[in-house]
């Protein structure tokens, strides 16, 4: 893959992480999964405080995707309890909006500990 395209994709993932943090997503982390799997390049993980907070973040993610011409392929809940874990598949980026409980239980950062951290929020 072209180096310039790889750099642009990484910048887009980093910028999406920043947008989520700007809208009160907590402990946002962008993981670079390139070379570790074949189905996505970046995970963007954020803790949400409520279903209302999660819905607001989804709206901001949708606005970001439209502005950046990034297609949202799929949105779905991954955990059975109400809004514990919502996944937004954007092809080369997958956003995980998780409650603190779900994030602690599934511990994606540990599961993907080999992935370099591309960006991390202060809080």
UniProtKB/TrEMBL annotation:
GO terms for cellular component: cytoplasm. It is found in: Cytoplasm. The keyword Hydrolase does not apply. Keywords: Cytoplasm, Repressor, Translation regulation. Belongs to the Iojap/RsfS family. Functions as a ribosomal silencing factor. Interacts with ribosomal protein uL14 (rplN), blocking formation of intersubunit bridge B8. Prevents association of the 30S and 50S ribosomal subunits and the formation of functional ribosomes, thus repressing translation. NCBIfam families: rsfS_iojap_ybeB. Interacts with ribosomal protein uL14 (rplN). This is Ribosomal silencing factor RsfS. It comes from Gracilinema caldarium. The gene is rsfS.
